[in-house]
Amino acid sequence: MHTQLEHTWSQIQAELRRAVTDSTYHLWLAPLKARSLDGDVLMVGAPEEIRTWVADRFARVLQTCAAAVISPATTIVVVPLDAPLPAEADARPAAPPPRPSEAKADESFNPKYTFDQFVIGDGNRLAHAAALAVAELPGQAYNPLFIYGPPGLGKTHLLHAIANYVRSYGDGMTVRYTTIEAFTNRFITALRSSSVEEFKRRYRDTDILLIDDVQFLQSKAKTEEEFFHTFNALYETGSQLVVTCDRMPRDMNALAERLRERFESGLVTDIRAPDLATRMTILRKRVQHDGVQLASPDAIEPIADRITTNIRALQGALIRVVAFHSLTGRPIDRALVTHVLDGLYPGARPQQRTLAEIQEATCERLGVSPEALRSPDRSARVAWARQVAMYLARELTDETLPAIGRAFGGRNHTTVMHACRRASERIAADAEAYELVRALTARLQQPDADRGS
Ligand SMILES: Nc1ncnc2c1ncn2[C@@H]1O[C@H](COP(=O)(O)OP(=O)(O)OP(=O)(O)O)[C@@H](O)[C@H]1O
C-alpha cells in the first residue's frame, strides 16, 4: 500500500470511529483495508464473510467519512480483499467498478439469487423443482412456466436463479430477465424513437426470456399486444418462457383471453408462505452468510415465530435486530430479539398498512408535507423523509417496488431500492435514525383506535 493511501485511510478510519459505536466499528469496519485510490474512486477491501453486509449496510457512512477526508466526489467501492486492482486487472482504461450501493439495472441478475441460496419447503417445492428443470432443459420441460403467489415469497429469486444457472452451465445459451415495467418503458421509448426493430431483437433474440410481475400488463393495451407477439415469436422458435405473477392467469380479468390461454398452456404452479422450519432455515442461512454472531443458536426463533407470510419481512426483521445490536453493543440473544420485535410489531403479528397511512405518519413526524414526498424536491430533509417512508412501505405493506415508486410521484423501482438501502444503512449506523424508524413502525403497528398523533 502506498504511504499516502495509508495515511488517507487512517484519517478515514478516525472519522469512522467517530461516526459509529465502538462495537459497530470493531465488528464491521476495523477489518476493512484501503486497496487503491484512483481519481475519485477509493477501493476498500473487505473479508468475504462480511463484504456483502458491509456494502449493503455501511456504504453511506463509508462514503460520508471518505468524502470528509478526500473530496465530496469520492466514491467508495467495497471489493474482496484480494480483488485485482484496476491496474492489475486490465491495462486498458477501465470503467469504474459498480458502486456497491447502486441498485441493479432493471434487467440485470442478482448473483446472490441462486438455487443454492434458495431454501426449499412445502410451500415452494414444486415451483423450485419446475424452475430447476427449466434451467436444466430450457424449452423442453415446461413451456411456459408460470409461477404465481403473494409478494415476498421468492418468485424473483427463482427467475434470477434460472438466469444464473444458465449463465454458468447453459453452454452459451442466452437468457434475458425483465420486469413488465422495464419491458413497457423500453417499448414506449422504442415507439418514440422509431427503434421498434431493435426493441424486438432485444426480447426475441434470446433462448430464455424471464418476465417478472406480469400482472402489470393488465390495462396496458398496447404493451400487452406487443408482449403477446413477443411471446408467440419466442414460443414458436422453441425458446423458454418463464413468467411470474401475483395471481393465477384466470384471475387476471383485464387481460385478453388469448394471452391468459397462452399462460395456462404450460405448467402453472404456485408458491405459498413458508412453514416454521423453512423460515428458521432461511434465517440461519442469512445469519451464516452475513457473519452475524448470535449469543445462542435459538436467539432468532422469535422472528420466525412472528413473521409468517413474507420472507422479505422476515429478513427485514433480522436486519433490524443486527442494527440494534450494532448500536447498543448488546449480544443477540432471545431477549434482544424479542425487544426489537416488540418495538416493531406490538401486536402479535405484523399488521398491514396502506402507502397513504405510511406517508402521512412519516410526514407528520418529520414535519414534511405529503406533496413534498411526491415532488422532485431533493433537499436533505425531504429526501430523508422519502427514504424512511419508502423503507417502511417495503416493510409494512405487500406493495411491489413499482407500486411504491408510483405512490411517490411516479419514481421508478430502482429509486425505491436505493432509498430502502440508504435508510437501512443509516438505521444501522445512527441511533437517532434507528429510534425514528422504530417509533414510526410501532405507531403504524398499533390498532387504529390507539393511534393518536
Ligand atoms: N425460499 C427462499 N430461500 C431463501 N431466500 C428466499 C426464499 N424465498 C424468498 N427469499 C428471499 O426473500 C426476498 C424476497 O423474495 P423475492 O423478491 O424473490 O419475492 P417475490 O415473490 O418476487 O416478491 P415481489 O412480488 O414482491 O417481487 C429475497 O431476498 C429472496 O432472496
From TrEMBL:
Residues 354-423 form the Chromosomal replication initiator DnaA C-terminal domain. The keyword Nucleotide-binding applies. Residues 326-453 are annotated as: Domain IV, binds dsDNA. SUPFAM superfamilies: P-loop containing nucleoside triphosphate hydrolases (SSF52540), TrpR-like (SSF48295). InterPro entries: AAA+_ATPase, Chromosome_initiator_DnaA, Chromosome_initiator_DnaA-like, DnaA_C, DnaA_dom, DnaA_N_dom, DnaA_N_sf, P-loop_NTPase. GO terms for molecular function: ATP binding; DNA replication origin binding; lipid binding. It is found in: Cytoplasm. Residues 141-269 form the AAA+ ATPase domain. Its main location: cytoplasm. The keyword ATP-binding applies. Keywords: ATP-binding, Cytoplasm, DNA replication, DNA-binding, Lipid-binding, Nucleotide-binding. ATP binds at residues 152, 154-156. Residues 1-90 are annotated as: Domain I, interacts with DnaA modulators. CDD domains: AAA, Bac_DnaA_C. One of its GO terms (biological process) is DNA replication initiation. GO terms for cellular component: cytoplasm; plasma membrane. Belongs to the DnaA family. Plays an essential role in the initiation and regulation of chromosomal replication. ATP-DnaA binds to the origin of replication (oriC) to initiate formation of the DNA replication initiation complex once per cell cycle. Binds the DnaA box (a 9 base pair repeat at the origin) and separates the double-stranded (ds)DNA. Forms a right-handed helical filament on oriC DNA; dsDNA binds to the exterior of the filament while single-stranded (ss)DNA is stabiized in the filament's interior. Oligomerizes as a right-handed, spiral filament on DNA at oriC. Domain I is involved in oligomerization and binding regulators, domain II is flexibile and of varying length in different bacteria, domain III forms the AAA+ region, while domain IV binds dsDNA. This is Chromosomal replication initiator protein DnaA. The gene is dnaA.
